[in-house]
TrEMBL record:
Highest rank taxon of the organism: Bacteria
Protein name: Copper chaperone
Naturally occurring in which organism (per UniProt): Agromyces neolithicus
C-alpha cells in the first residue's frame, strides 16, 4: 500500500501503523492538498478500505 500511495502526485511520505486483525492508521504527507477521492482510490487499489473513525 505504501508504494501505491507514494506513486500519487504530490505525496511526500506515507506511514502505516499496522494493527493485525484490527484498524490500522495510514498517514499521508503531501506538498499540496490531495483530493480525498485520490487517496481513497489508492487505498482501494492496494486492497484496503477506509474506516469511518473520528480524527
Amino acid at each position: 500500500m505504501i508504494a501505491i500511495c507514494r506513486s500519487r502526485d504530490g505525496v511526500q511520505q506515507v506511514n502505516v501503523d499496522l494493527v493485525a486483525g484490527g484498524v490500522s492508521r495510514v498517514t499521508v504527507a503531501s506538498a499540496t492538498a490531495l483530493e480525498h477521492t485520490a487517496v481513497v482510490a489508492a487505498i482501494d487499489e492496494a486492497g484496503y478500505r477506509l474506516a469511518d473513525l473520528p480524527r
